[in-house]
């Protein structure tokens, strides 16, 4: 592996390679993640072009050295950790907008572009990328985890917004999955194969994104319910109504209490009902929103809903929505230093949502420690967050059991063990339970065909086969 | 191959296998298609369950016998023809709705289900599958070609509506790509790999489809323009406006003339302007549609638009839309018997649409024979149809040259050679030009990993490698 590092240094210039222990540590561990490996990369490399990435891959292939791509480091399933060591490829300097085509409603970007920066740059043309994961996320990471966020209810997930990808394969070959039409049925859908593959099939070096037109107007309403069951049932009815909402989010009583006690100044301007609460975003022409609001109010009444609170100004609207969006940040900031945060998600068919949220809350409640639920209920997807003491073995085991019970239940309900965080290190065994050995074997066959040495982000999505080059290299190192 | 047929007969019962010459012919040739091969399957087999398909695959693998899936036979690129002979697997008896989950807004079907029949069955629950290819199409074929139609502008293409697939691989293994969540980021997106793969990676035997809520109301408007350039420019401006139209279609002067002369009785109730015409479909709450119509009228005025004609009744609306939908049928019915129809499509970035339609019309006009253009302009996708005499070699060559020029132009404009018909036999060489050898090689690597003998629908999407078993078997037969 160190031979590979030296060759890369010669090729790229020495300041494109870091062996600094602090830098390596910062690329190996995350407080947000439940799945941190003890492995560390031998070096961090900083390419600036697709061609440089290709050369790095050629060298790594020559020396059987794992390559682990790194975006913003905000993923939560250990997606960027280095259990088999190797070289971490940080895309921070590949952060350019390559070309913007407002008339075609698309933009070509490098993987290190942050989605919020991108949206600021293109807003003057009335366009935006309608995904909203962590504010820190970069497009490369968003592609690799098939991310989504609160906007997914209306706009779908990352896979729906990628027109084409330029990818460097393990051996350095550069491929482009498609040209730039918004629609195509020409050949295999390689784009969708790489979206969500977590860098295990190749390193994404350029992305063409579809863009959506910024809606003329938006509005936000907040409404609370006596029980999770009422809130979920109301949400299910809204989904079935066909009213085109921009987002439909749920926060439980615990989360609402967190807002009252620890929300930002803007969020604490009002006292929130500490009950299960739906956050509803409307978007479209102003006139249509008025109709949508009336329709939503009339549907929700039947579910013991409290008073609707509507944002009165655009600032008020931003504040209300940030109460939802800052939930994970707030929790990270209030977590006692000695404790860890377990943050996970599942997604189920919509009709099972109320049931699984109820059961999961009940189980987590029995732990006797902090736990809360936030849901992208419009997609049948929700997150559970638990604080626990990692030094307390029996508590840690109890939390693990509780989370696995939730995973098993999601699988029983024909759901998935990961709605929007991908698999990483943390959910490999759950994925096998979800899909079964035949489907997993097909995925592994594809992996072997594209990356025969298994050196692309090894140990993610599935375990390595015995005798894989990456294992041998890590053992030798 | 005949050994394989005999084993299948023993296994399935003799009436599940046909060796009848007329039946074989009907499964080998299409008047709608430009790409008919001279090869014929040795038999047609009719499975009724996934398990039967699996057994067929095991037998075919044992005897190196190609398998060609057959849905409704309405594809246009030779997708179901049998250039290497083999066994044609007709899914006509696998036409059941397996389970319908209105509360989850999804339905599980067998591949032989017709999409219009399905929509009739589920309409009472206010749901529909929002794709609208040929009225004859079955879900299996729709999956395999990644079809779309006029609704794609609002609802996307087939890949956006498939939740999971059950697939029989070449060796008989049965895999299911996912469970039934509406959203997932768990493992590779195998679903999208099989959608659009034209049966070259496996035989799809069960499909879970997302469903959409039937809009409260719809409306249709028709408006003509002096030139294609005006019509395309108006369409482009509408797309950029963000007004959420249900469909945005273009028919050229020639097509409008066909409506006047040969349309159905309902369509001929009015005299159409024989000029380039946009067909615009609105959908949503009645009140929102009113707003959308005003907005569309004000945008389009600037492009020398004629008078808007709005459907006055629901019947009128159906008639107006059928004028658009029946275009291909009308052409097939007026085509002189001695002539053939060349029907093809491309898609380009939206800003290039006016230019490529203009140039393509100009080129086709020089042929001095019937040619027309219909466009799903909302997606940058359009169809060209040409009547020609297949016995007239120089004319046939001129038509081929003209079509290839259109393909080359679409590629130059960063477009695709197939917007919604897939590749089949007909567009293999164009696909290589579109994507280049590195990307094609990756597709072939995936094909080899999943179907090492190359016996799944061989000769489609790309040519077979030398020495492939399917070639050997066909040569021996």
Automatic annotation (TrEMBL), chains A, B:
Alphabetical UniProt keywords: FAD, Flavoprotein, Oxidoreductase
Entries under InterPro entries matching the protein: FAD-bd_oxidored_4_C (IPR004113), FAD-bd_PCMH (IPR016166), FAD-bd_PCMH-like_sf (IPR036318), FAD-bd_PCMH_sub2 (IPR016169), FAD-linked_Oxase-like_C (IPR016164), Oxid_FAD_bind_N (IPR006094), Vanillyl_alc_oxidase_C-sub2 (IPR016171)
The keyword Repeat belongs to this UniProt entry's keyword annotation: no
Gene3D superfamilies noted in UniProt: 3.30.465.10, 3.30.70.2740, Vanillyl-alcohol Oxidase, Chain A, domain 4
Any one GO CC term of the record: mitochondrion
Pfam families in alphabetical order: FAD-oxidase_C, FAD_binding_4
Named cofactor requirement(s): FAD
Domain FAD-binding PCMH-type positions: 37-214
Group of enzyme by EC: oxidoreductase
Domain of life: Eukaryota
Keyword Oxidoreductase attached: yes
Example GO molecular function: D-lactate dehydrogenase (NAD+) activity
Catalytic activity field: (R)-lactate + 2 Fe(III)-[cytochrome c] = 2 Fe(II)-[cytochrome c] + pyruvate + 2 H(+)
Catalytic activity, EC: 1.1.2.4
GO biological process, one term: lactate catabolic process
Family in the record: Belongs to the FAD-binding oxidoreductase/transferase type 4 family.
Protein name listed in UniProt: D-lactate dehydrogenase (cytochrome)
Organism: Gnomoniopsis smithogilvyi
